[in-house]
Amino acid sequence: MTGISGLAGAGPVYLIGAGKMGHALAQGWLRGGLPADQLVLVDPQPQAFMTEFAGTNSVRLLDRAPADEPRVLVLAVKPQMMPNVLPELRSIVGRDTLVISIAAGIPIPTLSEGLGTGKVVRTMPNTPAQLGRGITGAVPASGIAAGDRDLANALLKAAGDVLWFEDEGKIDAVTAVSGSGPAYVFHFVEALAEAARHQGFSDEQAMQLARATVIGAAALLESDASPASVLRQNVTSPKGATAAALDVLMGEPGLTDLIDRTVQAARARSEELGRA
Fold this sequence. Notes:
Layout: E1 13-16, H1 20-31, E2 39-42, H2 48-57, E3 60-62, E4 72-75, H3 82-89, E5 98-101, H4 108-115, E6 120-124, E7 134-140, H5 146-157, E8 160-164, H6 169-179, H7 181-198, H8 203-223, H9 228-235, H10 241-249, H11 254-275
Parallel strand pairs: 1-2, 1-4, 2-3, 4-5, 5-6, 7-8
Antiparallel strand pairs: 6-7
Helix pairs in contact: 6-11, 7-8
């Protein structure tokens, strides 16, 4: 499998849609060895952080895609924009162009028909990609050659772990679990901080306690390969304060049921976007 070092010869890469996820991926690619002159950012209305990123790293930022054929075309636009974007890009997609989509809900057949190519990989990364700590689910179209899959893997691995699937339906599930997952964690921090405020802590103290708790727990998860259930048990003394708390959190309906319904709602919406 091609490693991250393979990015030195991966371009030119055109990134269509220079939003936060596009920014996260672009950062990972430059860290992974993609030359700045082989990356082209395309966004008619770029946000200030992307304009700054392009200037700092000597990366071209254009309001429309160049007419030249890219080696890789990465679609990072909002799903609702895809019907307008695909016809505009069709003329630059060549025989050797690999298309990678990170748009939620848009199925491979729609992308293939819209761009006139079978060389499509549908993916769903998440925002920790900007730190190289993301995880991406990926599904190749049936016509993808081994070399194109290796190239896609190299680009995606620059942003973190990659899981490959053959069933495209898994991408909607990945969207619901890890694609949207960071937002669930951030909201948990908000909820824990709010509970801390109810215990008499100031806003600053409450947020410091909540953030440090989640960051520290994540560090333990990373450093200890034990199952999460074992790490939970290690913190829980029988009939202690943590056990009393978990009686609430793990009761009925409890957090497990809430998270399951949360993920189901996100998956349903991802599937909806593909039918729009």
